[in-house]
Prior knowledge:
0% strand, Serine Threonine Protein Phosphatase 5, Tetratricopeptide repeat, mainly alpha, 85% helix
Amino acid sequence: MQQRLFLIRGLLAIAWAVVVALTADDLTTGVGILLVLYPLIDAIASAIDARGQQGSARQLLELNALVSVVAAVALGIAATGDKGDVLAVFGAWALLTGIAQIVVAVRRRRILGRQWPLLLAGAGSTFFGVAFLIMSGAADPKLEMLALYAAGGGIEFVIQAWLLARRTQQVAMAT
């Protein structure tokens, strides 16, 4: 279940990144809708992932889902403003979710083994969150950077899905 969730989440992020890279020159209604969709995808994936977890890992995923829903609403509002507003909201959300991913990955390493792709995704999200916050104050901020962020995270989720599938296969072969 989890490997399929990571694969779908990763592929959706990559597809989103391609569409944003092709359309984000201007802050149109369509781009605004795309901006709202991305954190909603994260919220749904986090809520599904939380169902299979216990304790603090579950609570962090549930909190991440809630933060992502709030980010979707905030991005919908920010998209009626300017690109700087969008980057500021996206940056704050990326920073918070990146920190949550790092914490979840560190806690899961005992159960699922190496979690370096999730750690990298969390570190990348944290880094990009800070970068987006800084870029939001630029004279001519570029939304295309959001595509790079999403593509990188998507690739890391696909890698995580592959590693989970491989680990599951190795365990099955050992028994």
